[in-house]
Amino acid sequence: MALTRRKKIVFALIAMSLSFFAMFLVLFVADLFLHSRAERSAGLNRYGYRGPVVARKRPGELRVAVLGGSTVFGYGVAWNESVPALLEPKLRARLGRDVSVVNLGYNNEGAYSFVPNLEDFAYMDYDAIVLYEGYNDLTGDESVNTSVYRRNSAVFRLTGYFPILSLYLDEKAMMLRNGNNLNAAYDSARSDGPTVFRPTLAQRTSAGAMETVSSMARALDAQLSKVATDQRASLTKVSALGCSSPWINYCESIAAAIRFGRARGDAVVVGSQPTLVLEHARDVHSKQQAMLAEMVRSNFSSDKGVVWADLSAIVDLTAPNVTFDAMHLNPEANAAVAAGLVEPLASALAGAGKQ
Questions:
Q1: CA distance 316 to 115
Q2: What pLDDT was estimated at residue 177?
Q3: CB atoms closer than 10 angstroms to residue 167
């Protein structure tokens, strides 16, 4: 019996829907497979943060979110060798209670990303936040770092699931175009733009990767020579927070994140990264962090739930057994940073009434 035109249309729509669903299912399974391979090495888990997926918050559990760039993410080390992962057992021992620490850092993100990331992961019901970033904002107001990597994904914005299949395919294509050398591909893509630190889906701790990151550190120092030269002329611009150019946007972003956390009742720790050692970077970074410390002191000193943690001298970035590029730390140095955050966190938690 011949099908009517209406039935043909219905069957065609059903067939198209089934084909679409089957294709979606295949892609979703492939994406989950890639996440399972990547989340314990140098990638993000299916919800867009580093390390295994955190379980639902348990009764009595204290949860800490650590935000920043590649030094929080743990560029060059495994997920359990990053500062947030090493902080968790130290804080648990100090407080004598159940603690989980979530790594919300991502490479190349600066202070601008703090509030968006805090908003996106508010469902985690964190009790304290650590704001630990300055390196990625050193170029200042003339070139504000507005990177919020996860929000580039429409799927993440809509669902909270972070797909990585497209990144995997993009990197495969880049490798094919660059003689199977992904480091060279990223170097080529960077050209004369801002210095960017990106992990691949696999653990990138080979000698070639280290050489690439080391060259990026030198490139950053060269970029900052202009900031150091032009800074004196730009210091006439001052914000309501007391911060002056070229780091008005940086200070305002940190202040916004502090206010966001305190409005929720969260304890807040603002940490200063180890002082950079390359000539121009050291000068610019020291001035930036001095300004940040003064901003926190003058605007939040009356709030016991906000604590400044000066970790500028916690490790010596000139020591070859501490860092492979004068910026990113090895596991032992990350452990020292984690230890340096314990007491400031304990103090901020007590001040916020979270202990």
A1: 30
A2: 54
A3: 18
Work out whether strand 306-310 and strand 128-132 pair parallel, antiparallel, or are unpaired: unpaired
Residue identified by tokens 């490798």 is 175
Question: What residue ranges do the domains of the chain occupy?
Answer: 62-166+202-351
Annotation: CATH topology of 62-166+202-351: Rossmann fold (3.40.50)
Q: What distance in Å separates the CA atoms of residue 11 and residue 154, rounded to the nearest whole number?
A: 31
Structure tokens that stand for 73 in this block: 């993410």
Burial 258-287 (b: 16+ CB within 10 A, else e): bebbbeeebbbbbbbbbbbbbebbbbbbeb
Alpha helix stretches (DSSP H) within the chain: 5-38, 70-73, 83-95, 114-120, 154-159, 165-177, 182-190, 207-234, 248-263, 279-300, 331-351
pLDDT at residue 75, rounded to an integer = 86
| DSSP label at residue 198 | -
- Digit-coded pLDDT (tens) for 11-40: 566 666 655 555 544 444 554 555 555 555
| Furthest C-alpha separation in the chain | 87
Q: Is 272 helix (H, G, I), strand (E, B) or coil?
A: strand
| Distance between CA atoms of residues 115 and 113, nearest Å | 6
Joined together, the tokens standing for residue 338 give: 């984690």
The pLDDT tens digits for 305-340 are 999 999 999 999 998 889 988 899 999 999 999 999
- Sheet (strand 99-103) strand order: 99-103, 62-68, 128-132, 267-272, 306-310
Of 108, 119, 168, 172, give the one whose Cα is nearest residue 144: 108
